[in-house]
Design a protein that fits this description.
The protein has 284 residues and is mainly α. The protein contains 14 helices and no strands.
Amino acid sequence: MRNPALVALACLLTSSAMWGLSWLPLHGLRAAGIDGILVVAIAFGAAALLALPALVVQRVAWRGRGHWLLAIAALGGFANLAFTLAMSYGEVVRVMVLFYLLPVWGVLGGWIFLGERPHRMRLVAMFAALAGAGLILGADTVLGIRLAWPDWLAIACGLTFTGNNLVFRQRQDLPLASKTAAMLLGAPLLAGALLGLGVQSATMPSVTATGLAALYGLGVATATALTQVGVTHLEAGRVAILIVLELVVAVVSAVLLGADTLDAREWAGVTLVLTAAVLEARDA
C-alpha cells in the first residue's frame, strides 16, 4: 500500500476500532485484579516511556514554548485518565455517548471563546446530540437527568479532549511527536499524583496483572500513533467522520458481547448522537 492517503485511512480506521474496543481490555484488567487509577499509572506510564525520547531529541524545537506542552499534558492527560476510569467503571454506551457530546462543546466553545455565531447546521447537530443523550440517559425531562460519577468523567473527558485538540491544531510550530509524548506523559503524572494523595489504595498488583496493564499501554501508544498518522495526512472533515467509528464500534461490541442492552428509545438516542457527530464532522 504505497498511497499515503490509503495508508493514513487504514491507520485511522484501525485506531478508531482499537479505541472503540478499549473497554474490553479494561474490563479484563479489572477481572485480573487491577483497575482504576493504578491502571492509568502503569499503562500510560509504559506508553509514555516509548514516547519520552521524542521530547529529549526534539527539545531544541520546543524550547521556550514548553508551557504549551504542559497545557497538552494537562488537558490530554486528564482526558486519558477520565476516559480510562469512565470506561472501567461506567456503562460503555452511556460513557461513549456522553463523550461524543463534542458538537455541543464545539458550538459553545466557538461562541464563548472565539465569538463565532453558530450557523443552522451546527445548531441542529448540537440539539441532536443533547436529545440523543437525553434518550440514552432515560430522562423524560432535563431536570430528570441523573448522572453517576463515571458519566461526569465522560463529559469532562469530552471537554478536555476538545481543548487538547485545539492546542494540538493551533500550535503547528511544535513537533508532532513532542505533542503526542506530552499528551501520553500527562496521564501517568496525574495518576501518580492522585495515588500519592491517597485517592485510591496503591496495593501492589501481581506481576501478571502489571504486565497486562503495561501491554494495554503499548496498545494505547500504538492507537495514539496511528491516530496521529491519520490526522496528519487526511483532511479534517474526513478525519472527524472516520473517528465517529469509535462510537459505532463501542456501542455494537458492547451490545453483541452482552456488556449493555439497549431498547428502542436508547437506539434512537445513539442514532441521534451519531448523526450529530457526523453533521459536526462535515462542518470541520
